[in-house]
Model the fold of this input.
Amino acid sequence: MTFMPPLSATVAMHPTRGERWPPARWIRRAYRRASPASIGAAGFLVVVVLVAIAPSALTRSDPNQMDPVAVLGAPSIAHPFGTDEFGRDILTRVVFGARTSLSYALLATAIGSILGTSIGVTAGFYGGRVDNVVMRGVDILLAFPGILLALIVVTLLGPGLTNAMIAVGIGQAPAFSRVVRGATLGVKTSQYVEAAQGLGATGARVIWRHVVPNVRHVVFVLGSLGYGTAILIGASLSFLGLGAQPPTPEWGSMLETARGYLQTDWWIGIWPGAVLGATLLSINIVGDLLRDILDPSLRLE
Amino acid sequence: MRRMPFVLLLAAIVSLPQTGFTAVAPHRGGTLVYSLDGSPDRLDPNLSGLRPAQIVFFQIFDPLVVRDPKDNTIKPWLAASWSVSPDGKVYTFHLHPGVRFQDGTPLDAAAVKFNFDRTHNPALGTRCGGCAMGFYESADAVNASTVTIRLKAPWAPFLDAASLFYRMVSPAGVRKAGDQDFGQHPVGSGPFRFVQWTPNDRVVLERNPDYAWASPLFKHQGPAYLDRVVFRIIPDPSTRVNALETGEVQVTTAVSAQDLQRLAHDARFKPIIGLSPGSPYSWAINVTKAPTDQLAVRQATEYGINRDLIARVVYGPFQAYGAYRPAFTLLSPVTWGYDKESGIYHYDPAKARALLDAAGWKPGPDGIRRKDGQPLVVVFNAWEHGIPELVQAELRSVGMDVKVGIYDGLTVNEDQRKGESNLSPLPGARTDPDVLSAFLHSRNVGNGGFNFSFVKDPELDKLFDAGATAVNLEKRKQIYAQAQRYAMEKAYMLPITTRDNVSLESAKVQGLGFDATGFFPWLYDTSLEP
Amino acid sequence: MGSFIVYRLGHSAVVACGVLVLVSLMIHMVPGDPAQLMVGDAPVSAAQLQAIRHSLGLDRPLVVQLAGDAGRFVRGNLGRSLRSGRPVSDYLRRALPSTISLAIAAMLFGVLVGAPAGVIAAVYRGGWADAFATAFAVFGISLPSFWTGILFIVLFAVHLGWFPATGQGSLRALVLPALTLGWFPAGAIARLLRSAMLEVLHKEYVGVARAKGLRESVVVLRHALRNALLPAVTLATVQFGALLSGAIITETVFARDGLGRLIVDGILQRDFPVVQGVVLVIALIYTLVNLSTDLLYAWLDPRIHYG
Done:
């Protein structure tokens, strides 16, 4: 449930990194590694993202339009996915829900990766006492189960998906900082960083120009893993009543509502559940592919 | 000729209990498992006001008197008889002889005095919401079986409070466990005694074999039929119903509409419906926060929601049982003092629009009304889904932008206390119309009082004070009718549907009744067929 | 090795204290008055609510309350629940075994089902066994547990009647919650082990083992699995911490007592002492699990040294 790479994660650095134009190598590797499954997953994700960007292109109706006459309608031609407890079209809500779920998870991952990377790079680069103090703080944060932290932050800031995702982001930051710190330690000893420092570049400049670009791929890979978890935690917070607020369509809260109708009106839960599952699966597969492409030596060991 | 059906009906009613109980003698023995939707906090009538705890400890502690749900009158229980002084300030109770607490100590006048003094000890921090706070003066044991309660001023809801909230605890038990820990080791005089409590899991009670002082309103005398009662704490509504289906519990409360529909006609189960008196499912309308500080906006809100539709969509299957019906008044129809005439707002979107137009709120390009550049935004908080979504959609169509927040209890409460929500939900299960003073009397504004409409209206205060102290029942009724009409004309509160007890029981359960609140089971008459 | 353990235990204590301080500060800052939740459906007057707050000591200034908390902890007293007056240690004594047994059962399921699934998927890569194992893993990591839980109850408790839907104490009652909670780690372990095995199976020493004419099962189990196990063990222990998160949902769905339910209720009811107590225990478990992970590591991989 909680996304958390191993504590002892170490990252072996690619010795030739930064010397050639990487994208060419990545494309070649992507071509070699891609399987039908990963192509399918990537294709599905592209569709979901497009739908999230422009939901009204796919369906013209309003996701919040209620129809008291068509409450809990089974799938039909007018409503291919059926209608929910207020007579709202489930297909439309699943489509609009993509935007909510994807964009909020993006917010969480952005917060987690930016915060975590800053901490990790700083600790790794400066080392010594800074490293010690910062990483003890990270340990403390790591000792909180993700949902627990989210729960406390949400009660502190008030319920709602935005606050929930801020919480999830904060919860993911320690994991990012641990791995990024490891990567930074690897980069720090490389010749060009030492050379830059020798030429009198300031710490901030070295970090920004030389360290960050070299740990970026680690962040991408972790981000792809954390992204799926953020969606899942968002859904779990909806279960605890701390997620999306009405009338916002969101997959997690749709699933939560549907639980009560499992034995009577199955279609309410099947569709958001299937789309959520397929999206998480695709994110996982694409994340694996991304890891293979960007850095085959990145192993969680 | 015209009298015949009435006589027949009367005969039928009179003969009902006999026919029901002479035909099949209730089976003795067995363990009833009753599900609770939340954890009890303390099994102490003075230190808990929470429903899951009350459901449990109402089996352990008896009251002096009891309200008969059939005719809304007060009947004897631990007090065999009582009298009220003409000025309404002194109540004299004559106790049922020979009553003993489960620890063997006698329930005499001294024990009753101990109980009243304990409830009104300010240092204890009593949770009792319906007690005579501010009115109680003293209790005196006249002799072993007679006790008088003196009030500082006449307080009409006293007997009602005595029927619900004043439950007799064993003074010896309190002294042994200490005030704070008594709720972990409760000792009362009720038909069941405490055995064991595993937090977040179960509370186990067993039959009190010496029980011989049941109220005459019950169908039998002597010890209860059941050997044991186990209360299982199951927070998730779906799981609660599933546990009923698997036979892990025999009674499950707070059943959802779709589950009731699914199982009501299943021969293995029976629906139980308890219609609840007091305040229906109502929202406080904040008169200090814009835009609901304007009467027109409040009235437009009242006119703009279709309560019939809401009840049908959200609580559809309950309607056939008369539960969760649309509510137009501040007291639910089964409450003593209910005033039908005060239900003046019936669905009329045209009128809602006209009121808003007249008040200067003009529709903007997006359909949301504006006045002086300010959009018509109303913050609507709630504890649960269903009603909020529909209210949001309906008020949207008259040009109001309703911002819904569905939060946990304390978050809703925090917004209420700070006056940050325009509409916020209220509790309110009571059997006396005095419950309204908690929501609308000016003394309950701020400091955690429940007047979340923030109404300080001398007119209402006067009515509520008069209603609480009036001794004559007819007079009281008139006063509360007047108060209800006045408060509705000013649109201080938004009643939407009634809020009732919808439960399911196994077909094996016989004789499970509910008290006058509709929520608290009487397990004394209950038996379990093998 | 001994000094390493002592050092790490000291480290654990520091982390646990830090967590406790952080949570105490946070929970007191959370808006909401616990006294309001102790009043039930019959509303109390404003004056009465003040009396309740006073009886709980909630009307004292925040600094005084925090100082009181600190004093308690120094004396080793976890305090009493505001809501029920019951000692927090009493709650923990009951909840801890319940959660631990759930977590262990879930982890057992995760390892015993996830690991073979991963190995089989790798060995029969591309076949139907691989497809089946992968589908199993994927469902595990992509279905929210509040959904799988109720699905299991409806299927295995209501319709098939194999297991009870709720409760604790018996092994049978543990099955469904453990499945619900264990599916996620099972899926994660299966996926990780599959890719690690694929990697290892192409390594030189495996080729050498094969060339020596060893049976394939021996090659897979003795040579490949041992090397692929390291990341899986890490993942498993890391998941152990994550299981506590999952327990929050699982315990609510299956009506089990446990740390997860205790802390959710504690936070929602602003029952400060309960939250503090549970967080302290979770932090201690977490650091101890980490310590044992590192020790397990050293045992599995002799190349790792601690000094």
The CA atoms of residues 156 and 162 of chain C lie 6 Å apart. The longest helix of chain C spans residues 216-253. Chain C touches chain A through 58 residues (CB under 8 Å). Chain C has a mean pLDDT of 82.
